Structure formats: C-alpha cells, structure tokens
Fold these 3 entries.
Entry 1:
Amino acid sequence: LGQAKEIYHTFLKRYPYSNYTPEVIYKYAQILRKEGRWEEAKAYLRQVTNDYPQSLFATFARKLLAEDEFYFCVQVGSFLNYDNAYNLAVKIKKAGYPAYIKKVEYRGQLYYRVRIGKYPDRESVEEVFKQLVKKGFHGLIYP
C-alpha cells in the first residue's frame, strides 16, 4: 500500500487536471480507508463527487459514502445461501463475538457476508482476528 499511496500522491501533485485524476483520487481514498484514516478518506471521496460528478469514480465514491462503512471488521464467510450465513453467524455469536450478516450484490449475485464487529482502528481488529484464528475460525480484515 505504501508504494501505491506514494505514486498516487505524486501523480495528484504533478497532474491535477489529468483524465485519470478522478480514478487516482478514488484509489488514494481507498488506501486511506485501509489505513483507518476515515476522515481523510471521506474528504477525498467527497472531492471526487464534487469535482468530477459525472465520472464513474464519483458513482463509486457516492456509494461508499452512502454505505458509511468507515470502520474495520472481520469477514468470516460469504455465502449465496442465507441459511449457511445464518448458521455461521450463530456459531460465531456463541463463541462470544458480535457477528452480523451483510447482504451484498456482486456481479448480479446476492451474497450474505458474515462479519464481526465495527472497530475504529487496525490494532483492535487485528487483536480480534488473532483470537478468532486461535479458536479455529478463518477470515479477512476489511476494508
């Protein structure tokens, strides 16, 4: 992430009016999200929507801002079948974690993603992730 972030930052300084600027701003905001720099990420996403409202990346930015998912979580499963997601969520809750199911449409398919928590910083989510692994669960940290 560090190298990409530096490249995007340099690009924005050197070519502020390029046709690629909306995409670079959006991708820079995504890196900031992955670093947990929520307010900065929101500012860059708003910049895309305000300065390039007709761009494809403004559409993506509006969606991210509307979803308001500026936190870390652990995704422990993604299913096409709701019952499978529900069963895993129950198992995770019994293990003492705040599991929930998020419906996501991706490439025309509806997925039920089982997630844990809404953590403000990377350290908190990594601690929970380590505990989950010790208990035999698998997952990914998002965003």
Note: The longest strand covers residues 109-119.
Entry 2:
Amino acid sequence: ATFRIATRYAPHNLYVDTTALREYADERGYADEAPADLFAWGSWEPGSGVEATSIAFDWSPGLQVRWDWTGDEYVRFSGGEPHEWLSIDGDTAQISADTLVVMFAARYTASPSGAGSSVPAMETVGTGRALVFSGGEVREGTWSRSSIEEPFELSSADGSVLTVPPGKPWISIFPDGRSLTW
C-alpha cells in the first residue's frame, strides 16, 4: 500500500495508496466503522469572528507555511510557493482546506522502545491554546482532553463550545512558542 516517488528526498517521498490500504485492512479483518469525531461540529454565524485571510506559520527557521483565504477555501503555500499534493498517477493540485484547526502543544523528543531513532512528538493530553479558521475568520479558544482515547474539547474564552464548521478540515498540532500570525 506504500510507494516512493523518485523525484523527492526521503522521508518526504513515502506515500500511501488509500485504496490499497483499505483492501489490506479488509483482508486482515479491520473494522469499517469510522472512529468517533475528534471535535464538536457546527456552523458559524458569518461575521462573528475576527478577519483572517492570510495565516503564517513559522514551523522552523527553514519552514514557513502560509494559508490564504480565496473566498471559498484556504490554500497552502510552503516557502512562498504553492504547496501541491501528488497522486500515484502524477496528478497535482494545490493543497486546500475549508477549515484550519490549530492546537498549540508542547514538543518533546520521544524515544521508541527497542531499536529505532528518537522522533519529535507533541503532548496532546492536557490543555492548550486553540485557533479555528474558517470562512476568512478566526475564533480563539482552548483545547483539552484527559487521555489520548478521548476526543478534543474546544472551548471559547467564555467557556462555550467552540465548534468546527463542516467541510474539509486541516488539523495542525503547532509547537508552543513558535510564531503564528494572521
């Protein structure tokens, strides 16, 4: 179900054919049921958030990502260039999303048991700052959960539920202390 693209450098050249992955899962008896929702979904009243038409993520000194609102969706740029997806057939298009969910969390280094290299990881149990961008607007709040088996609860500053509008979301767990502006 995995394949590599020769025109990209490892590890950024490893892809998954989701159709083949589903067949693989079916052959091994994995359940077809979708997992529980990660967030509370719900529509927003237009004009009830703060304008956010260009969002800049400073992931690291060598990686700046920007999402721009087109009037219909957010489109992604990396290093100032359109960031495109690539299909197994070689088709490309710019990465896009209806909604961006950003959860700030502590980054740490995880050391796997046994052999293997240490890898960067994010702490997603507890609480932290959250931003939800949709329709060219942003709403701020917090995320929380007490275990990795639970969905995230997003809350506005007043304690009410911060919903995620329906559509195609892009979810980022963003390192505490890094710059994100809009």
Note: The chain is about 5% helix and 45% strand.
Entry 3:
Amino acid sequence: MNTGVEFGVAFFDSTNTKDGGGWYSMNGERAMRFNGFSDLDARHVWITNLAMSDFYEQGLSKAAHLRNSSFFHQTLQHISNDCGFQQGSSIPLVVEQLSGIAARVMEISKLCMPGLRILKSLHDSIYDFIGLDDIKDDAACMYQPEFQAAFQENSYVAGIYWPRGIGTARLSMNRVDFAEEVLGYPFPIGAWHYERSNMSVDDFINLDVPAIACVEVDLKSANKPELLAFGAQMSGTAVMREWITQPEAAMLKMADAKIRISNILRGSAINDSVELPSLLTGDALIRSSYSAGLVAENYLHALTSKRYDKRTRNSRNTYFFPSRAVYLKAVDRMLSYSLARQMSDRDHIVSMYGFGAINILVTEDLFAEAVKDAADMGFAIVSSKFKQE
C-alpha cells in the first residue's frame, strides 16, 4: 500500500537546531538550503543527521515529520562514509546522494513487502509488517533475566591504544549475503524448561533442541581473549554475561576458552530458518545493490533486536529479549567474530565487529594493504577517512 508519504534527507549545520538551518534534498535532487526545521515540509518525512538525544534536547521528539540519523539502522554518517564521502566533502553533494539512497531503499522495501507502512524506523516498520508480537507470544517471557544475560548487541574490543595518525577502516560484507546466512540458522520457538546439568560443551553445542547454558567462562587460556569481547559493548561498558547460546559456545570453543556449564534452559522446538524477501535474493544485480543491502540489514535487525516494553515504563528493565533475537544475534556474533579473527590473523588491529562488518585501526601508509586483505576476504565495502588509490 502506498501511503503517499515521501522521504527526504535534511542535514542540519548544527545539532542545536535553534541556531540555524542546513541542507535538504528529496529523491536525489539538487540540495537546497533551509533556515530551520519549520521550513521542512510537514507533508514529507525527513531523515536528519540528528541523534535521538538531540531530538529530546531541542524539543523535537513530537515533530512527526522528522526522524533521527539511525532511521536505517546505519547512521547517515556511516552511509556517507560507505559512499566514499569524507570529512570536508561538499555537504550538498552528500545530502543529494543520501536522499537518492533513501528513495531507493523505500522503493525496494515496498516492492519486497507490499503493504509495508514505514512510519517508525525502517526495522521497526518491518517488524510490524512481519506481524511479530514477541512480548505477547514468546515463551521466553518467563525467563527474561536469563535471556537478557545471554544477549550481546555488539562486540567492542576494549583496551586498544590509539596513537596519533591512526584511523578506523570499516569493512563490510555484502549485507544481503550476510543477512541470508544469519537467517538461515534455526532458532527457538515454543516452551522452555530448566535442567540442572554439567554436560560438556560439545554435548551442549550438539543438542537436538535449542538451549542456553548458565556458564563460567575462563578466557585466560583463550587464543586472543580480547578479540572475543565477551560482555564488552561498543559504549565501552560491560554487560553481565552468565548465559550463552549454542552458537556462542561454538565461538568460544573455537578460541580455546574454558567453559563450565552448571544449568541449561532447554527449548522445545526450532524454526528451521527465515527467508529474506525473494526480491532481494533472486537477482544478482539487486543482491549487489547498496540500497537493497540496507533493506536486508534492517530486515535482519528487526529479527535480532530487543524490543521496547511499554508495560515496564517505570521499571529499570524496559526491554524484552525475544529468544529468537538472542539466538540469531549470537549467530551474527559468531560469524562476525570469524571475520574479525581472520583479519586479526593478518596482523590487523580489530576494534569492533558485528552485522558482518568489522572495524580495524590503520595508518595511512598501511591502508592500501588493509584494502587488499579486505578484498581477499570478500568484503564488499571499505570505508575510511583515508582515500583509496
């Protein structure tokens, strides 16, 4: 169903929107100046370069026609970096390119999912379109502390020294391929029950039903323990990790970490897999499209993210952790770790990984070597402040 709403991109000159305007563009057309957010046509939806915190600080959270920078999960800054724009690039050109991408993402999304209504962020809109209601339907509601302790959103390799002249290169796999690989793994459905067990890690990994295990993890004997980033988040803060899934157990075993199991929470059934919309996977040109990749990543994010729980608005725990999301996020972490380890084995310093992408630290003189190694490993996109020759 076509809602008639068009999406554009608006770049504010400053996060303090009261101080002035910026540039806007629709459908990749020539960027134009605006003097303030009130100049932006309220009949359209504008994806901005503002963070959610900026919305609240500037009193814009009630502005129905404005969206924050992470509307596509990847921020507009990440997307512009992927497109080869760097610090100092012409803002009007950046805005024109981003608005063209936004238009194609919307077009592909609606072709893939007829009837999709994009009113929230793209991944939240896809979640609603699929018809999921985890808070109501997921039997994991009985065991939220355990599933929360098994969930890790991203993997930040802490304790890295950043000397002068170091920059970050972000290496990304083809997003359609990666989303298809993650969603090809089975995930849990149905009831769960406790079972006291000190089974071996191999027995746990090879169970014929999904399960999560209460564990003690000893990283001292592991190969490159910092790369496992067990419990380390991108913000630099740690999350308590007392439970793990079978995919993450396989990842830890691969790194020779010591794992002792004391309890397991055993599932009753699995869903074989989820398929991406056929339009994304059935044509080689669309599969290689950057805009189609963003649609695929948002589809994956819809199925692997924690959900805001309005019922707990006055509670400290405001999120619900679906068993499917916990399990598939662990698959994402396992597959992304494998990529990170391969780059680490080539003597690159990995600082973060997840969603089929890794960040490595490079100097300008070593950037060309990093690009070559990334190409050898099949990474589709390399973005950095350093220019590729």
Note: DSSP finds 15 helices and 16 strands in the chain.
